[in-house]
Fold these 3 entries.
Entry 1:
Amino acid sequence: MEGTVTRIRSVLCEVDAGGQAYVCKARRRLVASETGESKPVAVGDRVVLTPTGPGEAVIEEVLPRRTKLSRRSPGDVRTEHVIVTNVDQLLVVCSVRRPPLTLGIIDRYIIAGHSGGLDPIVCINKMDLAKDRAEYLDPARTYEEMGYSVLLTSARAGTGLESFKSALRGKSTVLAGHSGVGKSSLINAIQPGLKLKTGPVNAKGRHITAGVSLLRLDFGGYVVDTPGIREFTLWDMKKSEVAQFFPQIWELAPRCRLPACLHLEEPDCAVKRGVESRELPASQYERYVRIAETLVENPRVPRATDVEVPAEQIGRKKRALSRRKMKQVLRETGLEEVAEEAEEEPEPGPA
Ligand code: GDP
Ligand code: ZN
C-alpha cells in the first residue's frame, strides 16, 4: 500500500493512504544512521506501508522524492534535515518589522528551494507596521529584479490576501521563514481553523498535531507550515554553486580570469570589477559573499530518494554550471575524488 506522510512527531508519523489516516513507525533499517538524514521520513514523502492494526501501519520504504527542502541539522554539520518533500513551491515569508526584515535568510531559503527543485516566491508580511512604503517596496524590488514573484501582505489588516490565496490555489506550498513573521496567521487568515484540525490519536491516546504538517486547502492545494525551524543553514551546497543564484553575478563570471573564480580573494575578478564600476549593485555582491564565505561544504553519498533537478529549472534567469565547468571546479577544489567515490558507492539499500 502507498501513502503520503502528512505529519511527524518524534518517532511517529501520520500517513494518508487512500483517504484513511494511519499512525506509523518506520522500519528500523530506515533509521537516521542508515540514510544520513536526521529523520527517516519527511512530511510529503510517498511511502510504502504495511497495516499492523486498525489505523496503524509500519513504513517499509520511502519512494524517490520529486522535490525537497533541506537544511543542515542544527548541531551536526554532517547531517541533513529534510524539512518537507514533494511540494511544488516554497513561499519564503518575512516581515517588515518584528522581526526585522533580513535579506540573508530569504536568500538562503531561495537557494535551498531552487536546489531542491521548488519554485520560490517571496512574501513580505506585516505591511501594516511599515512607517514608510520603501520598507517593503525596496526589498520587493530586489527580489522582483532577480525574477521572483513577491507578495505583499498584512495578515492583521487583511491586505493582499486574495493574491496570497491565488498563489497557493491548486499547488502544494511550503511556508518558511523566521519564527514570528506571521506564517500561521497567514494560513489562518485564508482558511480559519485549518491549523486547529487534529489528527487521530496514537495507541497512548496522544494527538499528533505539533510540528511540520501537510494541510489541505478547501479552495484546492496543500500547504505545509514549518513551525519551530529556528535556524536555516544550507545543506549540500558548494561555494562554486552559489553564484548561479545571483543573476547579475552569474552574468559577469565568465569574464573572470580564473575559470573557478569564487569572486572572493581571486585576482582579476570581473565580478569585483563590476562592483567598482557600479554595474553590479554592491548590496547583491555583499549578499553573495556572506553566503559563500559561511558555507560549509559537505561531500556526501547519493541516495535512492535524491532529487534530480534539471539545470534549466534552476531559476528563470540562471543557468547551472556546465558539466565541463563543474568537473574543472571539482578538480581545482580537490573534491573530484570525493565525487567519484560517491558515484561508485552503492546505496545502503533495504535488505
Ligand atoms: P509564525 O511564527 O511565522 O507562524 O508567526 P505567527 O503567525 O505566529 O505570528 C507571530 C505574531 O505576529 C503574532 O502575534 C501575530 O498576531 C503577529 N502578526 C502576524 N501577521 C501580522 C501582520 O500582518 N501584522 C501585524 N502587525 N502582526 C502580525
Ligand atoms: Zn570572479
Note: The chain has eleven helices and 13 strands.
Entry 2:
Amino acid sequence: MKTKPRIGFLGLGHMGLPMARNLHTAGYDIKAFDVLPAALAAAEAQGIATVATASEAASDVQIVLTMFPSGKHVLDAYREHLLATATPGTLFLECSTIDVAQAREAAELALAAGHRSADAPVSGGVVGAEAGTLTFMVGAEPEDMNELSEVLEVMGRRIVHCGGHGAGQAAKVCNNMLLGISMIGASEAFVLGERLGLTHQALFDVISSASGQCWSVTTNCPVPGPVPSSPANHEYQPGFAAALMSKDLGLASNAVELTQTDANLGVRAAELYRKFSESGGASADFSAIINAIRDGSL
Ligand code: NAD
C-alpha cells in the first residue's frame, strides 16, 4: 500500500485546525505548529502531534502546508524558517488567501530553493473546513496534481486545477470580487424595493427565478425571511465576516492595479467594504452591509 506523505502543517487557526484534524483523522502523520501557544494546545487536545518551532515542522516531511492570515506571514516564514530546513523537493502547499503577486513570489522562492510549490486557497469557510467540504482552487504544475489531489480531497470536496503558480489565488480574488459586488447589488435592490413598496418575499420570489438570480440572493439573502438559513435571520452572525470580505477585496484591488484592469465596481466594492468594516461592521456577516446602505452611512 502507498504510504501517505508526512505533512508539516503551520497555522492552526479557525481554518487550519479543522483542516489539520481531518488529515489526522484520515491517518496522515502531521507535525503541527502555530506561533500561538493556545493554538498548539487546541491541536494537542485533539490528538494532533505538535512541534515547538516552524523549522521543525518543515524538516523531514514531504509536504509543508501553510494556512496563515496574510502573504507577509507566508513570505516571512518561507524566508526565515521553512525553505532552508525542508528536504529538497518538498512540496510547499500554500492554502492561505494572499495577494496574487505574493503567491507567485512564494512559488519562485520555493522553486529557487529546490522545492516544489502549489497555491491552493479555499472557499467554504470554517463550516467547510470542519466538514471537509472545502473547494480548493489550485495553481500548480500538472505533474504535482495527483499528489496534491490525494491530500486536498481529505479536506475538500471540489479541487479545481486553475493553472500554473498563482492561478489558484487569481481565481479566488476574481470569485470574491464578484461576490462582493453581487452582495452590494442585492442589498441595493432590496432597499430600493422597500422604498418602492415591495415586500422582501415578493422581490425574492421574482429575483430568485429571474435574471437577477445569484448566490447573494438565493443562499445568503441580505434580508430576513425568504431564506431561513441566511445570516440575516440570525442577527447577521457570520457566515463570512465583512472583515474577510474587505481583506479579499483589497487583494482583488491589488490585482486590478497590477493588471491595469478597468474594474470600477470591484474597486468601489473594496472601498465600501473597507468603510463598513472600519465603522463597526467587521465581525458581522458581509450581508449586513445592507443596513449601512439602508441608513445611508456609506
Ligand atoms: P486565523 O487568524 O484564525 O489563523 C491563522 C493562524 O496562523 C493563527 O493561529 C496564527 O497564530 C497562525 N500564524 C501566523 N503566523 C504564523 C507562523 N509564522 N507560524 C505558525 N503559525 C502562524 O485565520 P483563519 O480564519 O484560519 O484564516 C486563514 C487563512 O484562510 C486566511 O488567509 C484567510 O483569508 C483564509 N480563509 C479564511 C476563511 C474563514 O472563513 N475564516 C475562509 C476562506 C479562506
Note: The radius of gyration is 20 Å.
Entry 3:
Amino acid sequence: MQKPGQLSIGDLGAELKRAGGGVTVKSQAEIDLMLDAGRIVGLTLRKLRGIVAPGMKTKELDVVAEREIRALGGKPAFKGYRGFPASICISVNDQIVHGIPGEKVIKAGDLVSLDLGAIVGGFHGDSAVTVEVGEVPDELRRLLETGEASLWAGIAKVRTGNRIGDISHAIEEEILRRGKYGIVREYVGHGIGRALHEDPQVPNFGPAGRGLLLRPGMALAIEPMVNLGGDATRVLKDDWTVVTADGKPSVHFEHTCIVTDGEPIITTKV
Ligand code: MG
Ligand code: MG
C-alpha cells in the first residue's frame, strides 16, 4: 500500500524516517494484538475469496470487506491511508496492486488480487491473495502457483539469524526456477506493527546474506508481485492503481509474519 508515484524502493526509507518509522521489535502484548489483527485480515480474505464471482462489481467486495473487518472487531487499515478511499485494494488482471474498488465488473477468467489490512489496539495485519474467477488458462494457473510458492519460499527464511536478503533471494529464486516471469521491483514487502509500513523494506529479489539481521519479535509483511510479462510498471491516472507496463497479468500474495527462533508466526493465516 505504498502510494505509487511517490514511494519507490528508494524513497520509502526516507518516508519512513520522516514518519518516525524504523525497525521495531514487538513485545508479547504487541504480538498478541498483531495476532488479533492478522486473524481478522485472514478471515475477511477467506470470506471475500468465497464470494468473488462473475458479474460482481469490485465496490461490492469493498462493502463486504469493511463490514466484515468491523464485525470482527477491527478497523480497516487502508481506508484513508494516504487518502486511499476504500477498505481493500482490488487489482484485476494487469493491475498489480492498489486498485480502487468501483464500478469494474468481475468476469469469468479474471485474476482478482485482494489486499487488505486491519488494525486492532493500534497494531496491524496485512495480507493479500490473488484468486482466479472460474477457469483460467494453464499459463495463468502456473503464474498463480509461482506467486504463492514464492511467498512461502520467502516465509521459510523468516527466522532469527537470517537476513532480509535471504528472504528476498529465496523469493526471486523460486520465481525464476519456475519460468521467465517479471518480478516487480518498485513495490516491496515491509516491516509492520504500529504502522502499516515500517522499516525494513523487503524486496522480492536480490542477493542472499545481506541486509538487516532478523531478531525475535520483528514483524514483516512479505509480498511478492509476479508478472506474466516484464517487470516494468506504471501508475494509472487515479494516482493509485499500479499496472504492468506491457498489459500482461500479474499476481500478488502476502502474509504478515513475526520472527521467532523457529518457524515464523504467520498472523494472517487462518
Ligand atoms: Mg497488503
Ligand atoms: Mg503490505
Note: The pocket of magnesium ion (ligand 1) is lined by residues 1, 115, 117, 126, 128, 223, 254 (CB under 6 Å).
